[in-house]
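User: My advisor, Dr. K., asked me to get a structural model of this assembly before our group meeting. I'm new to this, so sorry if the format is off. These are the inputs:
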Amino acid sequence: MALTLEDVGRQCGVSRSTVSRVINDSPLVNEATKERVLKAIKELKYAPNFIARSLTKNCTETLAVTLPDITGGVFPEILAGMDEMAGQRGYHLLVVFLGGARPKSGTVEQLITHRRVDAIVTIASTVDDSQLVQMAEWNVPIICVAHKSPSKSIPSILFDDAGGAAEATRLLLAHDCRQIAHIRGPKDNFDAEERARGFRDALKTAGIPFEAKREVEGNFKREGGIRAIRELLERGVSFDAVFAGNDEMAIGAIEELKRRGRNVPREIPVIGFDDIESARFVGLSTVRVPTREIGRRAIQLAFEMIDGKQPIGYQILPTEIVERASTARGGDAKTLRLDGV
Amino acid sequence: MALTLEDVGRQCGVSRSTVSRVINDSPLVNEATKERVLKAIKELKYAPNFIARSLTKNCTETLAVTLPDITGGVFPEILAGMDEMAGQRGYHLLVVFLGGARPKSGTVEQLITHRRVDAIVTIASTVDDSQLVQMAEWNVPIICVAHKSPSKSIPSILFDDAGGAAEATRLLLAHDCRQIAHIRGPKDNFDAEERARGFRDALKTAGIPFEAKREVEGNFKREGGIRAIRELLERGVSFDAVFAGNDEMAIGAIEELKRRGRNVPREIPVIGFDDIESARFVGLSTVRVPTREIGRRAIQLAFEMIDGKQPIGYQILPTEIVERASTARGGDAKTLRLDGV
DNA sequence: TTTTATCTTGAAAGCGCTCACAATATATGA
DNA sequence: TCATATATTGTGAGCGCTTTCAAGATAAAA
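Assistant: The format is fine. Below is the predicted structure of the whole assembly, which you can bring to the meeting.
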């Protein structure tokens, strides 16, 4: 068994509370004894038991982060931002992939009710609205990232999905496209909804009627983009541009369009969303989202709530249009970074 | 304050030990009382305090996973495999990015000495050898993933780096390349060393002398590939093929080669390592490593060690060559999936 | 009937820590 | 000198759980 405060105390002739005080940097301990205790700690290589401390302090210095079971995309970068911020306060991240081996419902609740974590951050969660609200009752701070919470009491921190989508749409409109197809994400996904909304808003503002037949639902994966293009073509829907709900689908769409002999971007410009790493290589125009930043902010928010501060409703982080070859109407060679090998 | 065993016991007229037994599914509790207790638990919505349990059981059902501060590449996929396996036993993953905000030395030790986790899995660690050995003394299981431990007592689970590298090299040799340049990873990185070794071995076997001037050190990032090509060209080193230590650097290399007017693959075929997502899009030939599988196996190994089983020295997982456009000597159009947009 | 074995349950100690409070020593003022 | 304030340390209870041990109840055997 490992050493305890008692052991250290015995070593230098003080009680365990004095040792505890030294460890917690309490001011009410004599300078000389402090020295002695520190020496003993070093000699014995004593390290405090964090679990025991957590029990008495009722605080684990751990935050849970839940992710949907999508490994690619923006998540790693968000996580890195989170760990960066958490580390600054000595906190750790308990990362849980939802929907894989774990039962989708129940896992998150357990994390809270078992008092394993001080707060929960859910990224792009598809956890049922009512579940989230219910979870909020266990008064453990919950923060929603990249999806808006159903309840006012749960703060959210979001990308400006609608704004970015509108901008992307306007880019295509500026290229004189008037029959823009939108490959949207799944219905239960917040970002998907918002991006679709931004798309429609931009059309409306431009005085172009939205046509339901040009909106196809995908699954946020490459293959969803492929299927969406097939569906459009097979249904005989005409379109002169594609706005995809994320980059993966955009890449799939480009792949399928080219396979069908359509020229991208000359005939059909394509724009995505997220600016994932592959986007650069494909030359995909897209809407960049501040991933690292959203991670940092989410943890900051978690800390504020842990400290008892009342959270504001939600924050929206700005996005940024990135123009690459896939929307270069003239087919400008300059913008083609990598035209295959 | 949340409910305790005592509260549940009071509700249905039994002691806390009986409730504890029910929760832990002990056989020595009467069927009738068990029912009553379960009902009370449900009524009160009682959930056990995991921290308290961890304290008595001296086991946290949590595994630490450390990652280098590189967000891209193969790590997310490895993590997903790990969480999948951990979840099957109700375990959780404490994910720590080394080298970012956290002090590189000390963080891992703390995780152990503080008894926060039941085992540690280090991925592609650059933690000092001696540190690892020292850590092993705290007898908490340690598993090395994608890097070999210095000590016999720490089991490692590895990709067949040398084998894959040799195969990649042979592919280039088969294309009649005789002056193959190798952009290797950093000196302190295990994979980098192994891949370099595989490269040399393959040359030797083929009876071609290894020339040090054709081996340049990179940093496993895209930019490292760019710089390596510049260095080779500026130093006037001739080469007729490039084997990069990972895909990121290979992509950087291709980018720079094309910028310098060299034709890939006709003039200079390029092959990478890892098969990251971008590789498909670029059309990069590479060596695929079983990421998800290595994650699963690592956790499995951790569990075995937690259960007291003596670990075997190390496991090597096979790799697989993936041929794409970047090594298609004839420039076969069929293999060009995405020749830019 | 008494004895012994079998089931069930509760009391109590302990995991390693923190913290309120009591105790002691020393210093200050009357 | 004694009362009172101040600095420093130790004692003990408690965080919520598990687990050993003993006790009580019941059933089986003698």
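One thing worth pointing out at the meeting: Residues 14-18, 21, 28-30, 33, 52, 55-58 of chain A lie near DNA strand D (CB under 10 Å from a C1').

User: Perfect, thanks a lot.
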